[in-house]
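ok so I'm stuck.
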Amino acid sequence: MNLAYPREWLVIANRALNLIGETALQDFTGTSESTQNITIQLPSVVQSVLSQHTFRCARKRTSLAAVLDAPAYGYRYAYQLPSDYCRIVEVNGTEDFSIEGDKLLSNDTGIFITYIALPETPQTLTPAIQECIVYLLAHTLARTTTTNDNLAVILYQQYTALLAQAIKHDDEGKRQDMYEEWWTENR
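replied:
not stuck anymore, here's the structure
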């Protein structure tokens, strides 16, 4: 995951640290144990949360360019996935494809994808998804920096409840879009 740490991520990190009773960070450049744990754990936590659902606020669309080296067998073309790729939502232009590493393999040309993109800042995510990141990060940090297993369990339970709520809200918005489309087309 190619996630730079602009100051906006510091708010997320400090909220997670607060949940486990740790001191807030001033920036991501320090050498403290908390700073090192955050910089190690934050990218995988963001990716983990965003890979749980096809959240609309994290979607992007793009066309893929074929790379020069064709796959050894099975498919004729290999396409480079975007550097901010997290999860595929939809592939237009083919039904027969495989994702292997950072490539999409296909026999077809003209591949367009909708995918979940890793955000540069948390502000591009909904508050519900930001809250999920805070709680999963706090859970992860609690497991690695404290001896309080009960706290880690409680934080994970809260994360799963928040994730279910974030998915529900995201799906409700999708149903509304579908209803509006149906209503407009059938008038």
